[in-house]
Request: fold
Amino acid sequence: SQTIHQWPATLVQPVGSPLSLECTVEGTSNPNLYWYRQAAGRGLQLLFYSVGIGQISSEVPQNLSASRPQDRQFILSSKKLLLSDSGFYLCAWKELGVNEKLFFGSGTQLSVL
Amino acid sequence: KNEVEQSPQNLTAQEGEFITINCSYSVGISALHWLQQHPGGGIVSLFMLSSGKKKHGRLIATINIQEKHSSLHITASHPRDSAVYICAVRWPGGGADGLTFGKGTHLIIQP
Reply:
């Protein structure tokens, strides 16, 4: 069965420190993968998506970057965190087709202090 | 731009009540998702609709393409149904993922 793992669940980091959030999927190959940010009172905002290894597209300019070193691994990174990077981050995978379905990771609550 | 509006924003009800959550959008879509986000933050996909009606257990989702409106109903509500329910629409201008998300409806079912 298809599953998606995301870690860590919570993270408190000082301003200027690096960031690495990891997401892995199981039970599928060559998935479309996405990183979202969810701000309080707002809908999910798409940050990055990837259709294959090494293929990353960014939807919004920001202090973050993403990488896909393996087919089922998607990483969200930053070299130097800003206060405005605080938020709830979700990794997701979309199963395409007639019965399109979304699978989300459990999310990471990032607090930058 | 597709505006996705959910109502109500917050809903508190008693166990056993029939619940209705609404989602309206402004531009024609090809599909609509209903998602459930539990207090811990994880999101689960409930339904994907392109027309008509779907049912799974106590959950029923309907969509009216002409009126650009969808509803999620919960029958015999239970405290474990307490969550944020999110509507997401798929349309050609919806970005790389094709989706625009609503802000969610926060549902609390009291015992």
